Amino acid sequence: MIFDTISEPIARRVTAGLVRIGHVLRSRAWKGAGPAGVTPTQGHALGLLRDAPEGLPLGIVAGRLGVSAPTASDAMNTLVAKGLVLKAPGAKPRSISLRLTPTGEALADATRDWPAFLTGAVETLDPAEQAAFLRMLVKIIRAMQQNGDIAPQKMCVTCRYFRPNVHEGASAPHHCAFVDAPFGDRHLRLNCPEQEDAGEETQAANWRRFAPAA
Amino acid sequence: MIFDTISEPIARRVTAGLVRIGHVLRSRAWKGAGPAGVTPTQGHALGLLRDAPEGLPLGIVAGRLGVSAPTASDAMNTLVAKGLVLKAPGAKPRSISLRLTPTGEALADATRDWPAFLTGAVETLDPAEQAAFLRMLVKIIRAMQQNGDIAPQKMCVTCRYFRPNVHEGASAPHHCAFVDAPFGDRHLRLNCPEQEDAGEETQAANWRRFAPAA
DNA sequence: TTCAATATTTAGGAGTCCTAATATAGAGTC
DNA sequence: GACTCTATATTAGGACTCCTAAATATTGAA
Q: How far is B117 from A144, CA to CA, in rounded Å?
Protein backbone atom coordinates (compact mmCIF):
# COMPACT_ATOMS: atom_id res chain seq x y z
CA MET A 1 0.00 0.00 0.00
CA ILE A 2 1.90 2.99 -1.29
CA PHE A 3 0.09 5.53 0.90
CA ASP A 4 1.26 3.78 4.05
CA THR A 5 4.79 4.66 3.08
CA ILE A 6 4.40 8.13 1.60
CA SER A 7 1.95 9.59 4.11
CA GLU A 8 2.73 11.70 7.11
CA PRO A 9 1.79 9.49 10.11
CA ILE A 10 -1.93 9.61 10.78
CA ALA A 11 -1.59 10.92 14.32
CA ARG A 12 0.31 13.90 12.99
CA ARG A 13 -2.36 14.63 10.44
CA VAL A 14 -5.00 14.44 13.14
CA THR A 15 -2.93 16.81 15.24
CA ALA A 16 -2.61 19.17 12.30
CA GLY A 17 -6.39 19.16 11.90
CA LEU A 18 -6.92 19.97 15.55
CA VAL A 19 -4.31 22.70 15.39
CA ARG A 20 -6.06 24.17 12.38
CA ILE A 21 -9.37 24.24 14.24
CA GLY A 22 -7.58 25.90 17.11
CA HIS A 23 -6.32 28.64 14.82
CA VAL A 24 -9.78 29.30 13.43
CA LEU A 25 -11.18 29.47 16.92
CA ARG A 26 -8.60 32.01 18.01
CA SER A 27 -9.10 34.12 14.94
CA ARG A 28 -12.89 34.06 15.35
CA ALA A 29 -12.67 34.98 18.98
CA TRP A 30 -10.89 38.20 18.03
CA LYS A 31 -13.52 39.15 15.46
CA GLY A 32 -16.08 39.31 18.25
CA ALA A 33 -13.86 41.56 20.31
CA GLY A 34 -14.99 45.01 19.11
CA PRO A 35 -15.62 47.90 21.50
CA ALA A 36 -18.66 46.23 23.10
CA GLY A 37 -17.28 42.73 23.13
CA VAL A 38 -14.66 40.87 24.96
CA THR A 39 -11.27 39.54 23.81
CA PRO A 40 -10.40 35.84 23.66
CA THR A 41 -8.65 35.63 27.01
CA GLN A 42 -11.34 37.70 28.68
CA GLY A 43 -14.04 35.48 27.20
CA HIS A 44 -12.27 32.40 28.42
CA ALA A 45 -12.06 33.86 31.92
CA LEU A 46 -15.75 34.75 31.85
CA GLY A 47 -16.52 31.11 31.10
CA LEU A 48 -14.40 29.94 34.03
CA LEU A 49 -16.06 32.33 36.44
CA ARG A 50 -19.52 31.34 35.25
CA ASP A 51 -18.80 27.81 36.40
CA ALA A 52 -17.55 29.00 39.78
CA PRO A 53 -20.27 31.11 41.40
CA GLU A 54 -18.41 30.91 44.71
CA GLY A 55 -15.59 32.96 43.21
CA LEU A 56 -12.01 32.11 42.25
CA PRO A 57 -8.64 33.46 43.39
CA LEU A 58 -6.38 34.96 40.78
CA GLY A 59 -3.81 32.17 40.87
CA ILE A 60 -6.40 29.56 39.96
CA VAL A 61 -7.73 31.68 37.11
CA ALA A 62 -4.21 32.14 35.77
CA GLY A 63 -3.58 28.40 35.95
CA ARG A 64 -6.78 27.51 34.17
CA LEU A 65 -6.22 30.13 31.50
CA GLY A 66 -2.73 28.79 31.06
CA VAL A 67 -1.09 32.20 31.46
CA SER A 68 1.16 33.83 34.03
CA ALA A 69 -0.24 35.61 37.07
CA PRO A 70 0.54 39.10 35.75
CA THR A 71 -1.25 38.39 32.49
CA ALA A 72 -4.29 37.15 34.36
CA SER A 73 -4.15 40.15 36.70
CA ASP A 74 -4.19 42.49 33.70
CA ALA A 75 -7.09 40.73 32.06
CA MET A 76 -9.09 40.70 35.29
CA ASN A 77 -8.53 44.38 35.87
CA THR A 78 -9.81 45.07 32.37
CA LEU A 79 -12.90 43.00 33.08
CA VAL A 80 -13.43 44.84 36.35
CA ALA A 81 -13.15 48.13 34.48
CA LYS A 82 -15.72 46.85 31.99
CA GLY A 83 -18.08 46.08 34.86
CA LEU A 84 -18.19 42.36 34.17
CA VAL A 85 -16.24 41.08 37.15
CA LEU A 86 -16.05 41.93 40.84
CA LYS A 87 -13.01 41.66 43.07
CA ALA A 88 -13.60 40.85 46.72
CA PRO A 89 -11.18 39.85 49.47
CA GLY A 90 -10.63 36.11 49.46
CA ALA A 91 -10.41 33.50 52.17
CA LYS A 92 -6.63 33.37 52.38
CA PRO A 93 -4.45 36.28 53.35
CA ARG A 94 -3.75 38.67 50.52
CA SER A 95 -5.95 36.65 48.17
CA ILE A 96 -8.89 37.91 46.13
CA SER A 97 -12.12 36.33 45.05
CA LEU A 98 -13.21 36.97 41.49
CA ARG A 99 -16.88 36.69 40.53
CA LEU A 100 -19.13 37.78 37.72
CA THR A 101 -21.36 40.80 38.08
CA PRO A 102 -24.93 40.35 36.82
CA THR A 103 -23.86 41.97 33.55
CA GLY A 104 -20.94 39.59 33.30
CA GLU A 105 -23.20 36.66 34.01
CA ALA A 106 -25.59 37.71 31.27
CA LEU A 107 -22.74 38.01 28.79
CA ALA A 108 -21.27 34.65 29.81
CA ASP A 109 -24.63 32.97 29.39
CA ALA A 110 -25.18 34.58 26.00
CA THR A 111 -21.92 33.12 24.76
CA ARG A 112 -22.38 29.70 26.32
CA ASP A 113 -22.78 28.21 22.85
CA TRP A 114 -19.63 29.76 21.45
CA PRO A 115 -18.68 29.23 18.70
CA ALA A 116 -21.97 28.27 17.11
CA PHE A 117 -20.38 27.69 13.70
CA LEU A 118 -18.27 24.86 15.09
CA THR A 119 -21.27 23.31 16.82
CA GLY A 120 -23.04 23.51 13.47
CA ALA A 121 -20.19 21.72 11.74
CA VAL A 122 -20.17 19.00 14.40
CA GLU A 123 -23.89 18.53 13.85
CA THR A 124 -23.26 17.51 10.26
CA LEU A 125 -22.01 14.22 11.73
CA ASP A 126 -24.75 11.70 12.39
CA PRO A 127 -25.56 10.96 16.05
CA ALA A 128 -23.52 7.76 16.24
CA GLU A 129 -20.50 9.57 14.81
CA GLN A 130 -20.91 12.41 17.27
CA ALA A 131 -20.96 9.94 20.13
CA ALA A 132 -17.87 8.18 18.81
CA PHE A 133 -16.11 11.49 18.27
CA LEU A 134 -16.90 12.61 21.80
CA ARG A 135 -15.64 9.34 23.19
CA MET A 136 -12.33 9.73 21.36
CA LEU A 137 -12.04 13.34 22.40
CA VAL A 138 -12.42 12.17 25.99
CA LYS A 139 -9.63 9.67 25.45
CA ILE A 140 -7.35 12.28 23.97
CA ILE A 141 -8.02 14.79 26.72
CA ARG A 142 -7.55 12.16 29.41
CA ALA A 143 -4.22 11.17 27.89
CA MET A 144 -3.10 14.78 28.01
CA GLN A 145 -4.29 15.08 31.60
CA GLN A 146 -2.34 11.98 32.59
CA ASN A 147 0.78 13.48 31.12
CA GLY A 148 0.22 16.77 32.86
CA ASP A 149 -0.18 18.58 29.56
CA ILE A 150 -3.57 19.97 30.48
CA ALA A 151 -5.09 21.05 33.78
CA PRO A 152 -7.33 18.39 35.35
CA GLN A 153 -10.78 18.35 33.81
CA LYS A 154 -14.03 17.49 35.54
CA MET A 155 -14.61 14.45 33.35
CA CYS A 156 -16.85 11.44 33.89
CA VAL A 157 -14.00 9.04 33.23
CA THR A 158 -12.02 10.19 36.26
CA CYS A 159 -15.04 10.62 38.54
CA ARG A 160 -15.77 8.64 41.66
CA TYR A 161 -19.39 8.30 40.59
CA PHE A 162 -18.48 6.73 37.24
CA ARG A 163 -19.36 3.06 36.64
CA PRO A 164 -18.35 2.14 33.10
CA ASN A 165 -19.96 -0.70 31.15
CA VAL A 166 -22.15 -2.09 33.88
CA HIS A 167 -25.41 -2.24 31.91
CA GLU A 168 -26.49 -4.44 29.02
CA GLY A 169 -26.97 -2.92 25.60
CA ALA A 170 -25.02 -0.31 23.69
CA SER A 171 -27.31 2.64 24.29
CA ALA A 172 -26.49 3.38 27.92
CA PRO A 173 -23.91 0.95 29.29
CA HIS A 174 -22.43 3.26 31.93
CA HIS A 175 -23.87 4.40 35.22
CA CYS A 176 -23.61 7.66 37.12
CA ALA A 177 -23.80 6.92 40.83
CA PHE A 178 -24.41 10.57 41.63
CA VAL A 179 -27.78 10.81 39.89
CA ASP A 180 -28.08 6.99 39.99
CA ALA A 181 -28.93 6.62 36.33
CA PRO A 182 -27.51 4.83 33.29
CA PHE A 183 -25.90 6.75 30.45
CA GLY A 184 -23.96 6.23 27.23
CA ASP A 185 -20.93 7.57 25.43
CA ARG A 186 -23.03 10.36 23.95
CA HIS A 187 -23.62 11.70 27.46
CA LEU A 188 -19.99 11.81 28.54
CA ARG A 189 -19.07 15.10 30.14
CA LEU A 190 -15.89 17.10 30.16
CA ASN A 191 -17.15 19.64 32.62
CA CYS A 192 -19.53 18.16 35.15
CA PRO A 193 -20.20 20.33 38.22
CA GLU A 194 -20.67 17.22 40.35
CA GLN A 195 -17.46 15.52 39.31
CA GLU A 196 -15.02 14.41 42.02
CA ASP A 197 -11.86 12.54 41.17
CA ALA A 198 -11.84 8.89 42.09
CA GLY A 199 -8.77 7.34 43.70
CA GLU A 200 -5.93 6.39 41.42
CA GLU A 201 -6.62 2.67 41.49
CA THR A 202 -10.33 3.08 40.90
CA GLN A 203 -9.58 5.36 37.97
CA ALA A 204 -7.21 2.84 36.45
CA ALA A 205 -9.69 -0.01 36.92
CA ASN A 206 -12.52 2.07 35.45
CA TRP A 207 -10.40 3.00 32.49
CA ARG A 208 -9.59 -0.63 31.70
CA ARG A 209 -13.30 -1.35 31.78
CA PHE A 210 -14.22 1.72 29.74
CA ALA A 211 -11.53 1.31 27.07
CA PRO A 212 -10.10 -2.20 27.01
CA ALA A 213 -6.68 -2.24 25.36
CA ALA A 214 -6.89 -3.06 21.68
CA MET B 1 -33.28 8.21 29.61
CA ILE B 2 -32.70 11.00 32.08
CA PHE B 3 -29.35 12.06 30.63
CA ASP B 4 -30.95 12.84 27.28
CA THR B 5 -32.94 15.55 28.99
CA ILE B 6 -30.43 16.96 31.46
CA SER B 7 -27.36 17.01 29.25
CA GLU B 8 -25.99 19.87 27.29
CA PRO B 9 -26.46 18.82 23.61
CA ILE B 10 -23.67 16.52 22.50
CA ALA B 11 -22.49 18.77 19.67
CA ARG B 12 -21.93 21.54 22.21
CA ARG B 13 -19.92 19.28 24.44
CA VAL B 14 -17.81 18.24 21.48
CA THR B 15 -17.30 21.88 20.62
CA ALA B 16 -16.32 22.61 24.20
CA GLY B 17 -13.73 19.83 24.02
CA LEU B 18 -12.25 21.19 20.81
CA VAL B 19 -12.20 24.69 22.26
CA ARG B 20 -10.36 23.38 25.30
CA ILE B 21 -7.75 21.74 23.12
CA GLY B 22 -7.42 25.01 21.25
CA HIS B 23 -6.72 26.84 24.49
CA VAL B 24 -4.02 24.38 25.50
CA LEU B 25 -2.42 24.68 22.10
CA ARG B 26 -2.29 28.44 22.30
CA SER B 27 -0.91 28.42 25.80
CA ARG B 28 1.76 25.87 24.86
CA ALA B 29 2.76 27.79 21.79
CA TRP B 30 3.63 30.75 23.99
CA LYS B 31 5.78 28.68 26.35
CA GLY B 32 8.08 27.93 23.44
CA ALA B 33 8.37 31.59 22.58
CA GLY B 34 11.37 32.62 24.70
CA PRO B 35 14.20 34.78 23.36
CA ALA B 36 15.39 32.14 20.89
CA GLY B 37 11.98 30.90 19.85
CA VAL B 38 9.11 32.17 17.90
CA THR B 39 5.64 33.30 19.00
CA PRO B 40 2.45 31.47 18.04
CA THR B 41 1.54 33.67 15.09
CA GLN B 42 5.10 33.64 13.83
CA GLY B 43 5.24 29.87 14.13
CA HIS B 44 2.00 29.54 12.21
CA ALA B 45 3.38 31.76 9.45
CA LEU B 46 6.58 29.73 9.29
CA GLY B 47 4.48 26.63 8.68
CA LEU B 48 2.61 28.33 5.86
CA LEU B 49 5.79 29.47 4.16
CA ARG B 50 7.36 26.04 4.47
CA ASP B 51 4.54 24.66 2.35
CA ALA B 52 4.99 27.39 -0.26
CA PRO B 53 8.61 27.36 -1.46
CA GLU B 54 7.63 29.63 -4.35
CA GLY B 55 6.86 32.39 -1.87
CA LEU B 56 3.62 34.03 -0.77
CA PRO B 57 2.36 37.61 -0.93
CA LEU B 58 1.44 39.31 2.30
CA GLY B 59 -2.28 39.35 1.66
CA ILE B 60 -2.43 35.59 1.30
CA VAL B 61 -0.44 35.08 4.46
CA ALA B 62 -2.77 37.42 6.34
CA GLY B 63 -5.80 35.53 5.03
CA ARG B 64 -4.43 32.14 5.98
CA LEU B 65 -3.37 33.33 9.41
CA GLY B 66 -6.84 34.77 9.88
CA VAL B 67 -5.54 38.22 10.83
CA SER B 68 -5.62 41.66 9.26
CA ALA B 69 -2.97 42.80 6.81
CA PRO B 70 -1.27 45.16 9.29
CA THR B 71 -0.97 42.39 11.87
CA ALA B 72 0.57 40.09 9.30
CA SER B 73 2.89 42.85 8.12
CA ASP B 74 4.14 43.33 11.68
CA ALA B 75 4.71 39.65 12.25
CA MET B 76 6.56 39.29 8.94
CA ASN B 77 8.80 42.22 9.71
CA THR B 78 9.68 40.63 13.02
CA LEU B 79 10.53 37.37 11.25
CA VAL B 80 12.64 39.24 8.73
CA ALA B 81 14.46 40.93 11.62
CA LYS B 82 15.02 37.50 13.16
CA GLY B 83 16.55 36.33 9.91
CA LEU B 84 13.95 33.63 9.32
CA VAL B 85 12.12 35.15 6.38
CA LEU B 86 13.10 37.02 3.21
CA LYS B 87 11.09 39.70 1.47
CA ALA B 88 11.45 39.96 -2.30
CA PRO B 89 9.42 41.88 -4.86
CA GLY B 90 6.43 39.85 -5.99
CA ALA B 91 4.82 39.19 -9.34
CA LYS B 92 2.06 41.75 -9.06
CA PRO B 93 2.60 45.48 -8.77
CA ARG B 94 3.53 46.61 -5.32
CA SER B 95 3.37 43.05 -4.01
CA ILE B 96 6.03 41.19 -2.06
CA SER B 97 7.03 37.57 -2.01
CA LEU B 98 7.75 36.05 1.39
CA ARG B 99 9.99 33.00 1.67
CA LEU B 100 11.93 31.21 4.35
CA THR B 101 15.65 31.71 4.72
CA PRO B 102 17.67 28.51 5.26
CA THR B 103 17.57 29.22 9.00
CA GLY B 104 13.83 29.67 8.81
CA GLU B 105 13.48 26.46 6.89
CA ALA B 106 15.50 24.55 9.47
CA LEU B 107 13.33 25.92 12.26
CA ALA B 108 10.12 25.16 10.40
CA ASP B 109 11.23 21.60 9.79
CA ALA B 110 12.25 21.13 13.39
CA THR B 111 8.74 22.09 14.50
CA ARG B 112 6.92 20.09 11.86
CA ASP B 113 5.65 17.72 14.50
CA TRP B 114 4.32 20.41 16.77
CA PRO B 115 2.90 19.87 19.28
CA ALA B 116 4.31 16.43 19.99
CA PHE B 117 2.30 16.02 23.19
CA LEU B 118 -0.95 16.18 21.24
CA THR B 119 0.31 13.68 18.68
CA GLY B 120 1.22 11.45 21.62
CA ALA B 121 -2.29 11.73 23.02
CA VAL B 122 -3.82 10.92 19.64
CA GLU B 123 -1.63 7.83 19.47
CA THR B 124 -3.31 6.42 22.56
CA LEU B 125 -6.27 5.72 20.27
CA ASP B 126 -6.02 2.43 18.43
CA PRO B 127 -5.43 2.61 14.66
CA ALA B 128 -9.07 2.08 13.69
CA GLU B 129 -10.12 4.85 16.04
CA GLN B 130 -7.49 7.19 14.65
CA ALA B 131 -8.77 6.57 11.15
CA ALA B 132 -12.37 7.16 12.24
CA PHE B 133 -11.35 10.29 14.09
CA LEU B 134 -9.51 11.63 11.09
CA ARG B 135 -12.49 10.93 8.87
CA MET B 136 -14.80 12.87 11.18
CA LEU B 137 -12.33 15.69 11.47
CA VAL B 138 -12.36 15.90 7.68
CA LYS B 139 -16.14 16.08 7.75
CA ILE B 140 -16.13 18.83 10.32
CA ILE B 141 -13.52 20.88 8.51
CA ARG B 142 -15.28 20.44 5.20
CA ALA B 143 -18.54 21.63 6.76
CA MET B 144 -16.78 24.74 8.00
CA GLN B 145 -15.21 25.29 4.60
CA GLN B 146 -18.60 25.03 2.91
CA ASN B 147 -19.96 27.67 5.24
CA GLY B 148 -17.01 29.94 4.64
CA ASP B 149 -15.95 29.69 8.27
CA ILE B 150 -12.47 28.50 7.39
CA ALA B 151 -10.17 29.23 4.46
CA PRO B 152 -10.22 26.51 1.77
CA GLN B 153 -8.06 23.55 2.71
CA LYS B 154 -6.13 21.31 0.34
CA MET B 155 -8.18 18.27 1.28
CA CYS B 156 -8.63 14.98 -0.56
CA VAL B 157 -12.39 15.23 -0.35
CA THR B 158 -12.55 18.36 -2.48
CA CYS B 159 -9.80 17.28 -4.90
CA ARG B 160 -10.22 16.58 -8.58
CA TYR B 161 -8.09 13.46 -8.21
CA PHE B 162 -10.29 12.00 -5.49
CA ARG B 163 -12.33 8.86 -6.30
CA PRO B 164 -14.20 7.80 -3.16
CA ASN B 165 -15.33 4.24 -2.53
CA VAL B 166 -14.37 2.73 -5.85
CA HIS B 167 -12.49 -0.31 -4.53
CA GLU B 168 -13.68 -3.42 -2.73
CA GLY B 169 -12.78 -3.94 0.90
CA ALA B 170 -12.58 -1.59 3.83
CA SER B 171 -8.85 -1.12 3.93
CA ALA B 172 -8.37 1.15 0.90
CA PRO B 173 -11.69 1.87 -0.81
CA HIS B 174 -10.72 5.26 -2.27
CA HIS B 175 -8.45 6.06 -5.17
CA CYS B 176 -6.08 8.94 -5.81
CA ALA B 177 -5.92 9.58 -9.54
CA PHE B 178 -2.83 11.73 -9.14
CA VAL B 179 -0.55 8.94 -7.94
CA ASP B 180 -2.98 6.35 -9.34
CA ALA B 181 -3.18 4.31 -6.16
CA PRO B 182 -5.87 3.14 -3.75
CA PHE B 183 -6.06 4.54 -0.24
CA GLY B 184 -8.25 4.49 2.86
CA ASP B 185 -9.71 6.85 5.44
CA ARG B 186 -6.50 6.63 7.44
CA HIS B 187 -4.63 8.26 4.56
CA LEU B 188 -6.95 11.22 4.10
CA ARG B 189 -5.04 14.48 3.86
CA LEU B 190 -5.89 17.95 4.96
CA ASN B 191 -2.88 19.50 3.35
CA CYS B 192 -1.89 17.77 0.13
CA PRO B 193 0.55 19.69 -2.09
CA GLU B 194 -0.98 18.12 -5.17
CA GLN B 195 -4.57 18.95 -4.33
CA GLU B 196 -6.65 20.86 -6.88
CA ASP B 197 -10.29 21.62 -6.26
CA ALA B 198 -12.75 19.61 -8.34
CA GLY B 199 -15.74 21.33 -9.90
CA GLU B 200 -18.71 21.95 -7.69
CA GLU B 201 -20.83 19.15 -9.11
CA THR B 202 -18.01 16.61 -8.96
CA GLN B 203 -17.37 17.59 -5.37
CA ALA B 204 -21.01 17.15 -4.46
CA ALA B 205 -21.21 13.78 -6.19
CA ASN B 206 -17.99 12.62 -4.54
CA TRP B 207 -19.24 13.69 -1.17
CA ARG B 208 -22.46 11.72 -1.53
CA ARG B 209 -20.37 8.69 -2.37
CA PHE B 210 -17.86 9.30 0.43
CA ALA B 211 -20.40 10.04 3.16
CA PRO B 212 -23.88 8.81 2.24
CA ALA B 213 -26.53 10.65 4.22
CA ALA B 214 -27.51 8.74 7.34
C1' DT C 1 -4.38 62.75 -17.37
C1' DT C 2 -7.08 61.37 -14.03
C1' DC C 3 -9.35 57.69 -11.63
C1' DA C 4 -10.00 53.37 -9.70
C1' DA C 5 -8.27 49.08 -8.06
C1' DT C 6 -4.70 46.57 -5.65
C1' DA C 7 -1.16 45.63 -2.20
C1' DT C 8 1.31 47.07 1.45
C1' DT C 9 2.72 50.11 5.14
C1' DT C 10 2.21 53.58 8.79
C1' DA C 11 -0.08 55.36 12.91
C1' DG C 12 -2.22 54.76 17.06
C1' DG C 13 -4.38 52.22 20.67
C1' DA C 14 -6.06 48.15 23.40
C1' DG C 15 -4.93 43.66 24.78
C1' DT C 16 -1.84 39.49 25.41
C1' DC C 17 2.00 37.61 26.91
C1' DC C 18 6.42 37.09 29.37
C1' DT C 19 10.22 37.64 33.38
C1' DA C 20 11.86 40.01 37.31
C1' DA C 21 11.13 42.77 41.00
C1' DT C 22 7.99 44.54 44.57
C1' DA C 23 4.34 44.79 48.19
C1' DT C 24 1.80 42.62 51.94
C1' DA C 25 -0.49 39.50 55.24
C1' DG C 26 0.00 35.83 58.24
C1' DA C 27 2.73 31.90 60.43
C1' DG C 28 6.53 30.31 62.71
C1' DT C 29 10.91 31.44 65.35
C1' DC C 30 13.92 33.45 68.61
C1' DG D 1 8.50 42.40 69.55
C1' DA D 2 11.44 41.69 65.60
C1' DC D 3 12.96 38.31 61.97
C1' DT D 4 12.08 35.52 58.34
C1' DC D 5 9.59 32.44 55.50
C1' DT D 6 5.73 31.52 52.46
C1' DA D 7 1.90 32.48 49.73
C1' DT D 8 -0.57 35.81 46.85
C1' DA D 9 -1.11 39.51 44.06
C1' DT D 10 0.67 43.72 41.75
C1' DT D 11 3.97 46.78 39.35
C1' DA D 12 7.40 47.60 35.75
C1' DG D 13 9.00 47.11 31.38
C1' DG D 14 9.31 45.09 26.92
C1' DA D 15 7.94 42.20 22.85
C1' DC D 16 4.21 40.71 20.25
C1' DT D 17 -0.76 40.38 18.71
C1' DC D 18 -4.56 42.41 17.16
C1' DC D 19 -7.62 45.92 15.38
C1' DT D 20 -9.37 50.25 12.35
C1' DA D 21 -8.34 54.16 9.68
C1' DA D 22 -5.40 56.58 6.85
C1' DA D 23 -1.41 56.96 3.80
C1' DT D 24 1.48 55.31 -0.07
C1' DA D 25 2.73 53.47 -4.40
C1' DT D 26 1.81 51.23 -8.85
C1' DT D 27 -0.63 49.74 -12.75
C1' DG D 28 -4.28 49.78 -16.01
C1' DA D 29 -8.38 51.73 -17.69
C1' DA D 30 -11.43 55.79 -18.82
A: 7
